[in-house]
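I am still getting used to C-alpha cells and would like to learn alongside you. Please make up or recall a protein chain and show it to me in full. Would you write everything just below, so we can both look at the same thing?
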Amino acid sequence: MERFENCRNPILPPSICIADGEAHAFADGLYVYGSWDQYPDDYCSEEYCVLSTKDMKNWTVHDKSFDGREIPWLAEGKKNYYVTDMNLRDPSPFFKGMVENIQKTLPKEMQVSLDSVPEEELPESIDFGQYVKNPYLLWAPDCICKDGKYYLYFCTSANLEGVAVSDKPEGPFENPRQLPCAGIDPAIFVDDDGKAYYYWGQFRPSGVEMNPDMLSFDGEKIVKKIVTEEEHGFHEGSSMRKRNGIYYYVYPCIYRDNRPTCLAYATSENPLGPFTYRGVIIDNAKCDPQSWNIHGCIECFGGQWYVFYHRSSKNSQYGRRLCVEPIHFNEDGTIDEVKMTSIGAGEPFAMNEAIQGWRACEVAGGAYVSDYDLVMNDGGAAVIRYVKIDAPVKGVRVEKDGDGDVEVRIGGKGWHEAESGVAEVELRCTGDAVVHAVTIER
C-alpha cells in the first residue's frame, strides 16, 4: 500500500500508470478501478490495483487486488465464447484499418483483407482466445457494491469475461467465475430499484439485466447493439451512470480524427436504451504524439461531478496515466465539454511554485511527456493549465537540460505582459531541451 498527496493531473506519480479508470463513490470514499500499464510496449498487465481517496487530494494505492494468472478457468482452457457484432459485414473504413492491424499479429493464414472476402463468407463471430500470446492480461474492469459485497467485473486479452467477489472495495477479489459472454471492457450499473445491468463489447456493445446473485445472467435477455459505431461513434469502454432520471452511457468515440480519443456520451430513459448521442465530454488527442485511445467515466463525489480519463505518455500509446476534471451539467441534462488541464481537481498553480514538466496537459510539434519531464525538440510546444497570476510577473525560471531555448508565454502574451487572473502557460522550444520544471516568479 502506498499513499500520495496530490490534487492535480496526473493523479499518481509517473511510475504508476493506471488507465481505463472507473470511479465509484462508496460509503467510505471514492474508489477507482482500472487496468495497470506495467509494460513499455503493451497495454495493461496481469494485475489490478485499486485507488481510493476521501478528499480528492490524499490518495491510497492499495495492494494488488486481483491477478489474471490465478484465474483457474483460463489455465484449464474452458470454453471460449465467441465475440459477436464486430461489424465485419459492412464495416466502416476505421474498422477495416483496425482489423488489418490486428491481423498483423495473427498467423499468416488468418491475415486476409476484408475487401477480398465475399460478404456472405465473412464470419459473424470470432474466437480470439487461440491467437493471443498472453491470455492472462487483464484489460479494463469495473466494480460495484450490492448488499455489502463488492463485485469486480473483468476481461482478459482473450476477450473472456468474469466476475470476482470481495468483502472490501479494495479487494482482494476472489473466486473468479466466468461469465457466458465474450468481448472487452465490462461495465456494471445498479439502478435505484436494486436491479443490476451489465454491459460489454466493442463497436456494437451488448447489455443485459443481471440475475440477483450478480454472478450470472439469462442469455436470452441480452440486448444487442445498445449503441453502435455507425450511429454513436462507439469504439469500446462502456460506462453507465444515472442522474435526475437520465441514463448516461459514456464511451470512447471515433468522431474526431477517426481515433477513439474523445470520451462521448449518449442518453436514454431506459438502462438498456435506445440511446441518443449527445456529444463529447473530453478529448485527449493532444496529450501525446502517439495518443490513440481514451477510456473513463463520470462520477459524483462530494457534491461535484467529475470525468475520469487517462492520458498516454512517453511518445507512445502506453504508459497511460489517470487524470480527472470537474464537469458541469446544464439544466437540460447535457454536459459541457471540458479541456484537459494540469490542475485536475485542484487549485491553479501559484506564482513561485515549481511546475513539473510532466504536468503538461497538451503537447505539439513532437514534444512529449516522459517519465518525469517534458521532452521538447525544435518546434515543439506544450501547454500547462492553469496558473493564478495575482501579482506582476518578475520573471520566468525554466529548469532544463539541453541547448534549446524555451520561450514561455502566459495567457497568449509574453510573460512580462501577463495580466492578472487564471492563465494558460505555453512553452515553445527552439532546439532540443528536456524541461524539468517551470516557475512563474512574482
About this structure: Residues 158 and 295 are 19 Å apart (CA to CA). The mean pLDDT is 91. Helices lie at 72-75, 93-103, 229-232.
